Amino acid sequence: MDSQNFPSPSIAALERFQSYPFADDADYQQGLAGIVSSGALEGKSEDEKAEIILGSEVFYFNRISDISITLDEARIARRDFQNQETNIASDSSTIPLRLPAGNQEQQTLTFAQLKELIEQGRTDEIPNNKIIPNVLSSDTPSESKANVRKKPWEIQATA
Amino acid sequence: MNRPLPGVLHTPGFAHYGIAWSPFHNNRLALASSANYGLVGNGRLHIVGLGLGPGGLPQPGIDKFYETQDGLYDAAWSEIHENQLVTASGDGSIKLWDVMIKVGSARISDLPIRAWQEHTREVFSVDWSNIAKDQFISSSWDGTVKLWTPDRPRSLTTLQAHPSCVYQALFSPHQPDTVATCSTDGTVRIFDLRSPAYMPSAPGANSFTAPLAAAALTIPASGGEVLTLDWNKYRPWLLASAGVDKAIKVWDCRMVKLGPDAAQNPAVGGVCEAHLAGHEYAVRKVQWSPHRPDVIASASYDMTCRVWSTTPQPGAGHLLYIHDPHTEFVVGCGWSLYDEGVLASCSWDCRLNVFRV
């Protein structure tokens, strides 16, 4: 691609960053798992956590691609998408939650289509088959405040 | 008669496997699900809140969800911590979640607070004890049942319960340390966790196969796979079982003897007290009412969820109610613990229905 005609970085580069499947990239997820398990997100606010994660994405993207974008540019590229996400999440009790990033998420395969993809070894085309980091949360679990409730049969037995 | 439409929650791409109502919050339940029919791909644990829908019916909505590497087959809420629950996964893992922990980025999944990896095959059920409230059990296709407590990194006990898949294991709601299991092998078994012992070796048995734990009682429940069971909440030794033979059977097991003697003389028996026929395909889940000793719900591959009475009125049949809006296998059903008569069903059609019976 000829990027000479654009100011650096090109719109195309930002688009590539925005659409990069971080969730499906095993190397990236492994790196991210390392960041999480190191406790780097511990005690941070939601915004701070998002910044750290975005920073890790920019670092990784610049390393594996032939282009270089800055954190500010990445922030701008991501902004519209982020806004969409938070609007939906905040109202999730009434509206069915829209599934997060990745256009393949909404896709549902028939049993036969699925069987064919598995048999042909094309598992990368199967939706909802991404890498989830196998690490534990470094946050402190919540404290229990509620009293144990009696079950209906326990109430009747003591009545 | 027109029935009110159920409250429906749709989770596209994620077929359901199990429902668990919170023992603390009237309007909260957990939904275990798997992508791609559980064959390949991720799992998702949905935390569902119930609002007030049209006609006063509970309207389910997703409060949050957790993603897992492999499909999820079951979930159970802690009986001592209102924010915590465990899940059973296809990769053999068991994970403990705290619903108050939130990483909160669109780019990273929220994480479990503990994980255990001992089962060598799919974990198909988890159940939290209502008596020893710091314990839960898991059952697996590896033939074992394991006893756990959240604070220990390893299981407390492992029972080699069956020679094949253990589809469900449940604590007795009345008798401490007593667990019932059901399996591919067609039996329902009752184990006394205080008296672990192995079956006397049968003649010709070899030392290459794992010895089976001695059951206090073995019920030859079916010629086919037994997929589900439940303890009656009001009659301590009454069990229901169901599976591939399509029937729900109710077993009086009062003849069971617990303790060390029983382990030396494993009994076979169970008196079949009721036989509820009507489902057209395998029954995947049964659950007794928390409020009534004679009412039981069932979920079936025939795409219906049904409610039955074991003591019908004269002239009436056992069947009380059929819920049939699902368009795929119905694999789970669960009674609200505190709102009498409210039942939830979940299905491979990726829909959770909540309705009043």
Automatic annotation (TrEMBL), chain A:
Residues 136-145 have a biased composition (Polar residues). It holds the Pfam family KPWE_dom. Residues 107-154 form the Peroxisomal membrane protein PEX14-like KPWE domain. Coiled coil: none annotated. It comes from Dichomitus squalens. It comes from the Eukaryota. PANTHER family: CHROMOSOME 10, WHOLE GENOME SHOTGUN SEQUENCE, PEROXISOME MEMBRANE ANCHOR PROTEIN PEX14P N-TERMINAL DOMAIN-CONTAINING PROTEIN. This is Uncharacterized protein. Residues 136-159 are annotated as: Disordered. Transmembrane segments: none annotated. Residues 12-75 form the PEX14-like helix-turn-helix domain.
UniProtKB/TrEMBL annotation, chain B:
One of its GO terms (biological process) is protein import into peroxisome matrix. It comes from the Eukaryota. SMART domains: WD40. GO terms for cellular component: cytosol; peroxisomal matrix. GO terms for molecular function: peroxisome matrix targeting signal-2 binding. WD repeats lie at residues 85-99, 116-158, 159-201, 276-309. It is found in: Cytoplasm, Cytosol; Peroxisome matrix. Keywords: Cytoplasm, Peroxisome, Protein transport, Repeat, Transport, WD repeat. Belongs to the WD repeat peroxin-7 family. PANTHER family: PEROXISOMAL TARGETING SIGNAL 2 RECEPTOR. This is Peroxin-7.
